[in-house]
Amino acid sequence: MTAALSIKDMTVTFDGYRALAGVSIDVAPGEAFGIVGESGSGKSTLLRAIAGLNHFDGGSLEVHGRRYSGRRRDPEFYRTVQMVFQDPYGSLHPRQTVDRLLLEPLAIHGFADTEARIARALDEVGLGSGFRFRFSHQLSGGQRQRVAIARALIVEPKVLLLDEPTSALDASIQAEILNLLEQTRRDRNLTFVMVSHDLAVISHMCERLAVMRDGGVVEEVSVEDLRQRAIGADYTRQLLKASEGFRREAQE
Ligand SMILES: Nc1ncnc2c1ncn2[C@@H]1O[C@H](COP(=O)(O)OP(=O)(O)OP(=O)(O)O)[C@@H](O)[C@H]1O
């Protein structure tokens, strides 16, 4: 089967600094794949290079069998691959209405029947038509993230790149947004690549994950293996221990 996403030996260099040092990952259609690792390990750089927001200077990228190089992408790529960012305050223009924010991607990609699509998208993310003419600065963080998700889904993508999509939100809202994402993945058979510093979030959402360190992949494991502690790399074990310790402290 053709992979939804196939990355081979990808490198990214910023002014002589190797931020990504030869990363290879294959993600199957409909799969949820996680990327974890300490701060500065290259998680966002990898996601941004896939999205075309960063250049990549070596290796290759294929999305559903189509090959892309460097930073240039065709319009079909930008429809097929959508990204949801960590900060819904930064990623949505505050002075635009939800209607405008949803209309924009439809116009860019030449979709007709915009009325019906906007209504459907708002329902899908649990906001409903009452939110359509509100300004984004009038919304809560969770509501904004729902609009950001609607904006990504409205052009019918196949792959969602999720960069810490809930880490700017309160714990109770985080769970709601994760459940919404999981529901849309199942309903639309979407492929997810999700970056998080939180192993618990990745374990909840994903089937497999890559552990990154110093711009490289230390290990790829299934979430099932993680649960069974069937881990090869010491670094993954340390990460798991740190996240369990953190959760225990948080519960005390
Ligand atoms: N545009 C850039 N110019 C120069 N260096 C960069 C740039 N973007 C990232 N880097 C560097 O590349 C390395 C990887 O950064 P990246 O943001 O990908 O890490 P990360 O794993 O996502 O970290 P965090 O969890 O803190 O977001 C870091 O050392 C960072 O300083």
From TrEMBL:
GO BP annotation list: transmembrane transport
Q: Which residues cross the membrane?
A: none
Protein keywords: ATP-binding, Nucleotide-binding, Transport
* Span of domain ABC transporter: 5-239
Task: Show the GO MF annotations.
Answer: ATP binding; ATP hydrolysis activity
The signal peptide stretch is none
PANTHER family per UniProt: D,D-DIPEPTIDE TRANSPORT ATP-BINDING PROTEIN DDPF-RELATED (PTHR43776:SF7), TRANSPORT ATP-BINDING PROTEIN (PTHR43776)
Hey, which family's this protein in?
Belongs to the ABC transporter superfamily.
Tell me what this protein is called.
ABC transporter ATP-binding protein
